[in-house]
Amino acid sequence: MNVKQVLDAKGLACPMPIVRTKKAVDALQSGEILEVHLTDKGAIKDIPAWAQTGGHEVLQHVEEDGVLKFWIKKA
Predict the structure, then answer these.
(1) Catalytic residue among 14, 44, 49, 75
(2) Where is the UPF0033 domain (predicted)?
């Protein structure tokens, strides 16, 4: 996967992971991919819901050692 930017949002509580993710996605060009690292368990539902409302695509998400990782393709 050709990731354009990695956002470290570990340790942040809602709503900050979404705020930071939105700001990072806004800075990307259409079709570019953002990798986001989070520890807020609410992100499992929040990130896909936010992405859908903006027309963005969550390509993949995994959990590794308590860190949630999302790959989001900008619309």
Answers:
(1) 14
(2) 7-31
Question: Cα-Cα-Cα-Cα dihedral of 10, 70, 42, 38, to 10°?
Answer: 0
Tokens representing 31 are: 């079709």
Task: Return the DSSP state at 12.
Answer: P
Whether 14 is catalytic is yes
Angstrom CA distances, 62 to 27, 51, 65, 70, stand at 24, 16, 10, 7
The structural domains of the chain, with segments of one domain joined by +, span 3-73
Give me the residue label for tokens 């991919």. Answer: 33
The CATH class of 3-73 is alpha beta
Q: What whole-number distance in Å separates Cα of residue 21 and Cα of residue 45? A: 14
Q: What is the token pair recorded at 65?
A: 């050692």
